[in-house]
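S.,

Sequence below, as promised.
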Amino acid sequence: MFMRKIMVISMIFVVGLLLTGCESVRNLGEESLHLSQSTVKGSVRGWVVYTNPAYRYELRIPKDRAYGDSGEDGKELYVYDGAVDGSQLAMKITSTSNWKEGHSLEDFYQNQYVNYLENGSEYSDIEIGGKSGKWFHDIDVVGHTAQIIALDLSDRIIEIELYGMEQKDKVMLNSLSFYGE
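The prediction came back faster than expected:
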């Protein structure tokens, strides 16, 4: 009987630890992606500055990472973990003109192939580059897990697929700045 009580108490303790651990990870939310401005400024020294004049944003990219965009239209930017050959995609930014339509993020996703707001995806509010948006957690994108961040900048919508959660990935994300409002 005594052993049974110890076993029950131990199981309750283990379950409690597991639930507390899972809850603390879940509650990290926006903080798990955000870095202080001093950390970002100190980390991006010597990095390449990518500027997208069509959708009016800048991003710092580590020199050891390859990147490329979709050309003159500037709709997509791809950043890889290393040289493009054989490297994994670290970040993809897709820009959509919204000046004519004036869609909110809710309207925008109603017209998309996958509506992250209504398909049961976990999401939370986030701020990147001083702009508010939605962070869709752990989304499957062609067999890879991504953090998807969507920002409604009124005349354009920026969707960021972040495939890594390493310090460099977080610094890149936090170096994103928008101009020409």
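The helical segments are 2-28, 37-43, 105-110, 167-175.

Coffee later?
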